[in-house]
Every structure is written in C-alpha cells, then in structure tokens.
TrEMBL record:
InterPro entries in UniProt: Bact_HTH_transcr_reg, Chorismate_lyase_/UTRA_dom_sf, Tscrpt_reg_HTH_GntR, UTRA, WH-like_DNA-bd_sf, WH_DNA-bd_sf
Superkingdom of the source species: Bacteria
Keyword field: DNA-binding, Transcription, Transcription regulation
Family annotation (SUPFAM superfamilies): Chorismate lyase-like, Winged helix' DNA-binding domain
Organismal lineage: Bacteria, Pseudomonadati, Pseudomonadota, Alphaproteobacteria, Caulobacterales
Protein name: UTRA domain-containing protein
Domain HTH gntR-type: 4-72
Length: 241
C-alpha cells in the first residue's frame, strides 16, 4: 500500500481545516517551526506543503506576517465596467480600509501626454480585513477634475471619489501579468517576484483625460470575469494594440 508523502498529508490536514471553516480567511497558520514540531519533520517538508497550498491559492505567504488563510478570490467584471474596490471588498463581507501612501501635485511629464499641464499623483494601499488587497498608483488631471486638488483622499479613496464626482464617458483597460518588484512586494507583503495581476485603466470625460491608474493585485486574490454575447463576426472585430 502506498504511503502518502508527509508534505502532502500536512497540506491535506491544513486544507481540511480551511474547508471546514475551522481556519477562516485571514487566520494565521502555525509557523514552520510549530508545524515541524507537530509533525516531527524537517523544515523542507513543511515548506513543500506551504508552497503547494500557496500555488493553489489556499494560503498567502507574507513577509513578517507569516502565512495566512487566503480570502476567496474576488471576481470582477472590470473588463466591461469600472469597479469600485471598496464596494467589491465589502460585497464579499470583508472590512474595507485604505492607506494614502503618496499625494503630490506636479506638472505632467512628456510621457504623460494628454493628462493636462498639472496633475495629482497618488499611491493608495487598499486593504480587506486589514490585509493588503491591491496597491494602486493613480494620476488625476487637474485640467479636467480641478476639484480633486482639494479632495481629502485619506477619507475617501481616489477611485470612489472620482466615480461620485467625475463620471466618465470613455474608458480603456489593459491587463497584464507581472512579478512583484521590490517596492510593490513590500507594500503588499509579498516575496519579490510573486505573480501579480496588473490592471491599467484610463478614463476620459467628453474627450478629456480624467485619470490614469495602475492597480496591482496578488495573483491568487483576484480574477477578472466577463460574459459576452456575439455581436459581430470575430473576423471583423478590430484589434487595438
């Protein structure tokens, strides 16, 4: 009779505790040292079990915070709509909060053509149940949205403020898979190079640029879902680079 490898048994035990609700999202899993003592095994065995669980999206390994049970992935229709991060998090029954990490007013640069002469640059960390959910960098045109210069983005996150005060008439999304660089990894509590999903979004109002934002999500915590109906022949669908 085949004997189940110990690292798989450890992973299965943890998965059962998660599935039963004994260990709920955000629960801090025992440390590697504690699991080594419980199962009488080497650190490499525990590490293999944690790597397997992390790859399957059941746990999130964070520097300094240890390993915690992952929240179920948030499904977004961001391909066809402009989502509000706060509403999405609260819609999952999680507590939303945010930290404004950077706010500067500055002239636009050559590579920010179309954003107007002056803009606000913002960096915001969105949290779900006090755990990092996404890191957002955003530019807001003060030509199109001058009121933004005096908005309190510590009280209301930039995206929610814009949806309420500056309705858009045109939007563009670009989605890519990236590895977390040093600063992003630090902000999200991840290891360098951890797979992430990056959503780049631009919006316009009556032809004038409103905002340009980049949101980076840990790959296991977020996915994008859209439902389509056939409206034209695929051969006639224009491809935009």
């Amino acid at each position: 009779m085949d004997i189940e490898p110990l690292h798989r048994r450890i992973a299965s035990d943890i998965e059962r505790r998660i599935a039963s609700g004994e260990w709920r999202p955000g629960f801090r899993i025992p440390t590697e040292a504690e699991l080594m003592a419980e199962y009488g095994c080497a650190r490499m065995t525990v590490s293999r079990a944690m790597t397997d669980l992390s790859a399957r999206g059941l746990v999130v390994r964070r520097r300094r915070a240890g390993t915690v049970v992952a929240h179920p992935p948030v499904h977004s229709s961001a391909l066809v709509a402009i989502p509000d991060i706060q509403s999405e998090i609260e819609g999952r029954g999680l507590a939303y909060s945010h930290q404004l990490l950077l706010r500067i007013v500055r002239p636009s640069r050559a590579d920010e053509d179309g954003m107007g002469a002056r803009l606000i640059e913002l960096e915001t960390l969105h949290l779900a149940d006090a755990m990092p959910f996404t890191l957002e960098r955003r530019l807001i045109s003060l030509t199109t949205a001058p009121e933004a210069e005096h908005a309190d983005f510590t009280a209301a996150p930039p995206g929610g403020w814009l949806l309420a005060h500056m309705p858009w008439t045109e939007a563009e999304h670009r989605i890519s898979a990236v590895g977390a660089d040093g600063e992003t990894a630090t902000r999200l509590g991840l290891s360098d190079g951890t797979p992430c999903l990056r959503l780049e979004r631009r919006t316009w109002r009556d032809g004038l640029a409103v905002t340009w934002a980049w949101q980076t999500f840990p790959g296991a915590a977020y996915d994008l879902v859209a439902r389509f109906s056939p409206t034209q022949s695929p051969m006639k669908t224009p491809i935009k680079e």
